[in-house]
Amino acid sequence: MVDQSNVTSGFDVEFLMSGEFIRYFLLCSMETGSIPWWSESSGMDENGNPYRTATLTHPPAELALRRLYPVHPDFAGREHPFQDIVPTVYSSRADEFSVTILPDDAAGADILLRVFPSVIDLLAQPPRVLSENVLPVDLHIRFDVVFDTRQNGLLDNIGVQLELLDVSGPLIDAAVSLGYSKGKILEDMKEQIDRRVPFAVSGGGSLQRIETRKFLDDENRPAAIGVFINLALQSGPDPASLLPDRGDVDLARNFLEPGMKMAFAFPPETYARLGDDFKFKMAVPKPDEPGEFHYPIMDGDDQVGIIKGISVRPEINAGPNPLFSNVLVIDIHGEYEIENFFDPDFHMKIRLVPTVKENGVFDFDVDFDLDLSVAAHLVAIFLTTALSFVFPKLGLSLLFLSLITIKIIERVGESMAQSSIQTQLDRTSFLDTLPHKLTVEIRRWDPLYSTLHRVETADVQIQVNQNGFAFDAANVFVGRKFQPLQNMVIRSETRDAGNAVNGLLYRASDIGRYLDNDLVNVFPATDRMPCVEILPPQGDIESYRVSLSLDQVQARMAAIDRHVKELDYVPKKVDVIDNQIFQILAISKTEIPEIENLTRSRLRNELRNTHGTAFRKQAIDELQAELGRMPTEEEIAARFDQILQNAVNAAFRGRLLTELDSRMKFDLEPFEFADLQQRKILVLGRDHLVIRKMRKNGKITVYYRDYEHPFEPNTQKSDNLLSLPRYVHSDA
Q1: pLDDT tens readout for residues 20-45
Q2: Which end of the chain is more exposed for a tag (fewer CB within 10 A), N or C?
Q3: Which residues contact 87 (CB under 8 A, 6 or more apart)?
Q4: How far is residue 236's CA from residue 159's CA, in Å, rounded to a whole number?
Q5: SS3 category, 395
């Protein structure tokens, strides 16, 4: 258990990795094929003789027991193509794939990775084994945390740079004695090892500072590499106001206990920093009061409450002998404003609860308590607002928000689960830095979801108390998690010979770069699901699309985290025959802002190209008249941008309708939309339309009608379906 008095660096969070943890970091890359299971090399040796060899890497036998997933069936038994010559796949050697952390003066290397490869002479007939999992090779590797720095000084694109600096050991010595060039061996192996891999202590967001330090001198503690992180935490309501730099790695101590593979901690000061940051993220500038902020809760354009404060603290069990429960609490305190009703004070408490899964794997569950003593429907209204406005502004990770959503669905029903919580802020929350499930690589084995390959901790001891937050882990596994494509939309349907809808075409615009690698490669950790086909881009409207049968769609929705359910669609036009809606033309809520941004960008470029000279002259003339002198280039540029923006705004609405018309392709009969909605594939007109069935002359007709609020019956809707613009459906 972590001695919290040793958390002394002053950084927001501290993370210590042992050599064994780094070992599984590297094994995770082997599971994805980033570290090759086998490779071939050819050339001329020092004596001018040609050679062609195959080198096989053997992961330790324990890996088979440390996977939290089944090996892909197409990989099992096909680990390398030379199994008739070298049957060994997994090594039983105790020090296979072992990692030693090196001192800083070790010629620039940070770790030493020891492997016992097999080598085959492929020029011999028949090919002969030169060494089979007997002689070691020591790989001297730089293991460096790297990042990019933005113009605002924040850090993003956090990664680990792996660089092979040297190779040594008995097998290398034997090869050199036979005439092989050590330089060529190093060059070939660098092609396999050197790369930058994600280091997901930042959840894809930005950090203020990250530093590392090695701990090697304490004989009573495991050697470790420490990673010290300052989050981009606000010191005031202005988003640009950040806490001043803090922390000193020279003050850090090794708090990794014997037998532990990793440890993570932050000091008690981080509680208050996080609470302040969460509140400041809710700040909104006051209209007409420059420099002043308030903390509203918004529902669309309407203010429905205020945030009074947000605190982050350890939970204490109530009772005569209060004890810390090792649960972290985020307490959102505010006031909810209800027209013609009193304004109830509330506390929304989000609880991060440690849990233990199968194999002792550690995780956090998320629960919440809402202290709001009003009618149940008002609680539901609050939760809807919290999902769509409060939670995203806290900057909580997508995973964290998803867990909260699941709990709210369990509590109040699916209608409260708003898709808007999928938005996450650009800055990293401390929840993203928790390395109990550290993402090592993200791969796109399937066109519609990504796979996060992770080192997962087990047999964890956790402390959440007045001394801060800390946990360490005695065991690690390789695991994975799935993340469906967040901008997934349905572009159109497919139909069978009887013209019935039998499948859907999903947009996957970014898969071009994966077509020849991730989407076809197979390694132990590969995960992909069947699809009918992948269609290439078509014109300037249709990007890559993935054709799925309805059964495949439902299989994906049933598989955890592989497909987005209930995609939101908005009816835009209707085809009406004899005063009955025959077809509805709809577009995804995801595509609407995309098309709006595209429209503005195109208009801006076109107007700049066609009217730029006239706009510049107009800017100069206006400024000369106002200033009584020749304006500066800076003044001209600012006025030019204003004139250009005004022209864009004036033309925007008409151009947007044109762009929408050219891109709206998804139309179905009402009963077909209803069928997809009942399958939970999409929702048409969420909170606006409801599905109705009418039986007449033995025939059932399925249609949509406007939703009537239970507290406002017979509410007139100006946007009902029959009032939408008309179009004529075409089967072309």
Answers
A1: 999 999 999 999 999 999 999 888 88
A2: C
A3: none
A4: 29
A5: coil
